[in-house]
Amino acid sequence: MPVTVRLATEADLAALTRLDLTYPTDRYLALERSGEPPEHTFALRWRNRVPAPMALYATYTLNDLRRALSRTNLFLVAEVDGDVAGLVMIVVPDSTDAAEITDLAVDIAFRRLGAGRALVDSAAAWAREQQYRSLWVEPRADNHAAISFYVSLGFRLSGFNDRVYSNTDHEDGRPTVFMHLELG
Q: Percentage of residues in the chain with pLDDT exceeding 70?
């Protein structure tokens, strides 16, 4: 199935609101600590969860997507056989020379067909053209498939934090994971 990646337009927004962005949470990264301050040892370990509920990555409204069109540095859409299959949004914070993937979302029906890879490859090519040194992302610690996907593309773990966000992402000791891809 051919995958096409292009700039998102207003005409894509309605289809993007209908993406099924659920994912299984059967495995998650847990943060383990040992030692006494200031000498801590940290380990990130995969843990299995049974039963494994499905989680929802995001829901996009038309207003959310319109704002994203005007505020992101890059907003791409992937099509598989002419159907909108996913998106990637990139922002570049003023304080860095690295681009951030704020959203990478592929409809569950189109996963494992190359749309995610095509989106990230296109985003990385754009970031290289802009002369950014790296592309970074914060995948959810309970999204084993996403973390494995980024690793398969050459992203490396570059940090973690279990106090960045005060929401439910941190039950069971799940940290925020930071990953990056060197572009140079």
A: 93
CB 25 within 8 A of CB 49: yes
Q: Is residue 10 within 8 Å of 71, Cβ to Cβ? A: no
Please name the amino acid found at residue 34.
Answer: S
Structure tokens at 127: 């970031």
Per-residue pLDDT averaged across 34-56, rounded?
A: 88
Tokens 């490859």 sit on residue: 121
Q: pLDDT higher for 134 or 172?
A: 134
At 68 the pLDDT is 97
Q: Which of 57, 45, 52, 76 is nearest to 157 (CA)?
A: 45
As beta bridge partners, residue 134 has 98, 182
